[in-house]
Amino acid sequence: MNQSADYPRFRWLILISAVLGYITLQVTNLAVAPVLPQIAKSLNMNLGTASNLVMTPFLFSGCIILVLAGGAVCDRFGVLTAILMGLACATIPAALMPWIGHSATAVLWARIVEGFAAGFLFPAMGPIIGLWFPVHQKGLAGGLMSASIAVGSAAGVMGGPAVFAAVSNWQAMSAWLSIVGWVSLVFTGILAIMPRPKLPVQMAPPDGASDSTIFKRALFSWFTVTGIIVTFVTAWNLHCLFSLTPTFLAADKPVGAGYGSMTAGQLMLGVTLFAGVVGPIVSGLLLDRVFHGNAKPAFLVGFALLCVFVYALKVPAVTGNKAVLEVALILAGFGINFVFPTVYYFIARSYAPQIVGKMSGLWAGIGTFGGVLGLYIAGVTVKSQNSYQTTFSLQVLVAVIGFLLTFVLIKLRKAEQAVLTGQ
Prior knowledge:
This protein is mostly helical.
């Protein structure tokens, strides 16, 4: 029997909508990063203040919505509503920037609202995997959505400066780039008003248990606590790898690798584009066709790659050889891009369907603070020691913790399955 026949083809349209959402999110998030000096100049502030104004609120507001509202919206009103809300949050403030972008206060609030987009979009990943795709396609669906994040990141970092060069001010740049969001909004809006096909997964609570009862029981399980910790250490490695490694590569010796900003950017392309796009898709295909839905090997392979190849960045023989360094960076990138989509895949396969959105938001929302803490500690240690060695050691340590906790997580899932699924 072909299980795919039980699932409507409409699922591929929903997947396209989600992919467009993640691309829009990352373009909105990162297009401003390369032009921060121009933003600081236009708002009459220093670069550090501009960074805190533009980048930090985006991250924190997304975390808050992830924990408090995004998953609940997804479970209550469906993934398309969550995607629409996320796209609206990302697109409308960006489009209004030529009119509001001359006030620091207005920019702050605009970036807060744009950050809400992450809080609505990321919880949708779990339900899309869990509800809309058959078992043998769940990994691929998660991999494609994760790959779109890398595509959006690259589009933002490269597209932002290109559009800025054409229009000569960052406010107009923001408005022009919002076209991506408007196209995505129209596409998703059309899907939202189309007749919704019936899913084979039944959303009715089993044995009369309410959704809130199932959620509360699952919330206080050891599985959920352990899963959040695994997501925490994953976010630590994710943010440090993508945010701190370029600085290390560019910094002069002996603090960094001494390659300069131009070569550092070229080296990171292998991480952001090749590993970022190919890694999640390979991970998804392995989950579907080789591991047969078993997330344990994907977690272990991902964390093992991080342990080995982040540690390699501490070795002068690696960092001193450009070709070897590129390979180490790509394999570290494959590591994080194995783990990240597997987290959402595992959530979708572990909880009752009607709470997958809330649990996706909870794991991701609290877990993201691992990235915040990792970046903060890294900043402190680099400043005090004038070296990245401790930063890399801590990344390896948290990857080891993730590797070991994977065994605990798998055992807890089996032990607490009845609580997690509401049976």
